[in-house]
Design brief:
Layout: H1 2-43, H2 52-80
Length: 82
């Protein structure tokens, strides 16, 4: 009987450790997402005071702008490249 009780206690402790590590993992993920969000705010011009939804929309627009700029620069480079 004593052996079974010890096994149950070990299982419960292991389950608690798993839950704690999952919480730590979520906290780390949340923190890293927050850091990425702040870094994105610094990269996108004019995004300091925007909400998250507006920031993501502006980011998509900025990506499209940069893509079109790259296309134009490549076209110019092709004209001047021998």
């Amino acid at each position: 009987m004593k052996r079974n009780q010890n096994m149950v206690i070990k299982v419960r402790r292991t389950a608690c450790r798993g839950a704690i590590s999952r919480r730590r993992g979520r906290r780390v993920l949340r923190r890293s997402l927050h850091d990425l969000h702040e870094e994105l705010r610094m990269l996108i011009p004019g995004s300091r005071t925007l909400s998250s939804e507006e920031l993501l929309s502006l980011t998509a627009d900025y990506i499209m702008f940069l893509r079109s700029k790259v296309k134009v620069l490549r076209a110019i480079a092709m004209v001047y490249m021998p």
